TrEMBL record:
Name of the protein in question: TonB-dependent receptor
Comp. bias intervals (Low complexity): 635-645
Keywords recorded for this protein, A-Z: Cell outer membrane, Membrane, Receptor, TonB box, Transmembrane, Transmembrane beta strand, Transport
Gene Ontology MF annotations: siderophore uptake transmembrane transporter activity
InterPro entries found in the cross-reference section: Beta-barrel_TonB, Beta-barrel_TonB_sf, Plug_dom, Plug_dom_sf, TonB-dep_rcpt-like
Top-rank taxon: Bacteria
Amino acid sequence: MKRMPRKSVIAHRFKPRAGLRLVFGGAFASMTVGAWAQTASAPDAPASAVAPVAASAPPNTELPTIVVVGTTPLLGVGTPLEKVPANVQTIKGNEIQAQHSATVTDYLQKNVVSVDINDAQGNPSQTDINYRGFTASPLLGTPQGLSVFLDGVRINEPFGDVVNWDLIPQAAINSMQIIPGSNPTFGLNTLGGAVAVTTKNGRTNPGGNIDVSGGSWGRKSAQIEQGGVIGSNLDYYFTANVTNDNGWAAQNSSRLRQAFGKLRYTDADTTISLSMGGADNTLNGSQTIPRSFLDNYKQAYTFPDTNENQVGYITLSGEHYFSPNVELSGTLYYRHYRNKNVSSNVNDNYGETKDDGDIDLTQATNDQSVIVTDSYGASLQLTLLNKLFGKDNQLVLGAAGDFANSHFTQSSQAAQFTDSRATVGTGPFVFTTDAKTHNENWGIYFENTLSFTEQWSMTLAGRYNWARATIGDESGAQPLLDGRHTFSRFNPAVGFNWNPTPWFTAYATYNEGMRSPTAIELACADPNAPCSLPNDFIADPELKPVISRTFEVGARGHIGKATTWSAALYSTTLSDDIQFVSSQGAASTLGYFQNVGKTRRQGFELAGRTQWGPLGVAASYSYVNATYRSTWTESSASNSSADDNGNITVHSGDRIPGIPSNTVKMRVDYNPISRWNIGTDLIYRSNIFARGDENNQDVNGSIAGYFLIDLDTTYNVTKQLQVYATVKNLLNKRYANVAILGENFFNGPNHTFNGADTVNEQFLGIGAPRGVWVGLRYAWN
């Protein structure tokens, strides 16, 4: 076969053969899957868009774009959207840049169907992402249900499965895909979905730019990007950014430093990529505050509460086409992560009688924990485009091994509160925990898409996961920590697609996933020896793995060239779901993890986008019915319905706290002239129940829903110079997006400590008030 010069995507990488021509089905129209997450092919894009030449077309014929979805962790050929049995949403990096979102999570909240956020930590870079009722959170102890990948590497930190959104290099994002359901090929923890992020390269992002901005709350940021080609086979990309933010509330300032670089080699058959990145961030949180503090909603409950996140990583990936129908891809990675947390807490034993008979009058403790994790692994994936029983078929085979060594240390210091509720140490820090963990995860998977006809296709997939968590006490004082836990399971998936016309696709799917208990859950699972998060480890009784089972049916399509739409109906049931059960009220960090039976998230989502000349409108509606499906008992003494022992009974049908039933989003873009864009985001979110009110019976009831308006505008002064502005919370609404039931110890004058007269209250995570920022971006070729 005669080799042709490398051009756009893999359109000219190989001459199509019969096995390839029918798998991709010729020329498909590009369609939007999410509310306004449009996907278009880019030259040489790494499997995020593929536009092969049809067999009957001349070599230089331009054909309509084919949207291709990465339905497995690794980059590769991908699967044409019309054959994907899921409501996948795809976001391009330039769409994030166009809205000038300060954080990735802010963009997801405003633009992705069924995504919601909460501010339990009180810092904009430490928000929880909730998707269809499943969470990816930076907070240890939060039940995690989403897997997040960066260039094929899973970045849920092995210790606790947390996701630190502040460590993702936002400027380097080429595309993000949100894949719903319990897709087994993405491996452990994919209970409700996966987020796959791919980064830019110098061939598709040549030239550079510098971007500076500033505005409310002392926020100042600067960013630089540069990409280009060296010779005919090498390209490079680099970006770095710094941000300083005093924060809108007391004690929630941020300092972020990020850098990312990539060097690639490409020829007609092979791509080899070496990328490196790092971050050094300091994030202060203001926590949730009691309702009685709302006279000054910017104050912190207690402080300090500081997270120092540091990461450095290197990834070597490659793909090679042995023939037009055989592609092999692989990844090697190493990642070093360090988190230091300093938190101020009320002494849970204040006022109680100590062993020596004295009353414990220590008001507070300063807890300091350090987590250091070295993770590494490799994966390999083979894609075969062939015939099966005379029908077009695409088979993917893959294997992955991921390993991690973590060292967790915790020390505690007795402290007293100042009048401003800052903690001042009254003694030395004393070690309470010194533990090491080792995680070992193996997986083998397959995915096969068979096209019965041009209208009907079936996808079969499955993955066998084997996971081991080893916990060891390094102090010699907590031998109950020592343990080894092994979990394994095969998770299947099946899906059908029907494409009667190029403008309409319908699908139905069933899939299963598994989340094995994390080391922090296993080491804090004894109800007779509650631990303090994210602090002490005590013992490691067995926990069962969480099993998810998802059904989904849906449809998508487009009307003419300007309108796209999608709809989906889904239900995900978790067996042996794991919850953190508080021992002294939901706001207390003292408690333990336990399996609580079944929970369910089910609902539907609708989305559409259209363009009328200079006006673009996108809208979405999502409904989530998230409920417990088993009866269990929880300690929640701050709940007004608790019995004399401080317990509540959670019944089947009770709503899961923190998950809104209804979310409505709208995005409007207007171009009065070609150089100027005005954008508006409107978000409505319905009420939620507070954590600790799992039985939905607390006298405070649920916290109210809210409606927000954000604005952004961009004006291109020249082809190189751009100025922009953003406004968040235009109407300056006072609202809360998370709530927790707890015990307020600060009922003295001016909210000072009064441990003898505590009050049960609803604690609120307050959203940011109105903020305005302006920026300037200068680009060069």
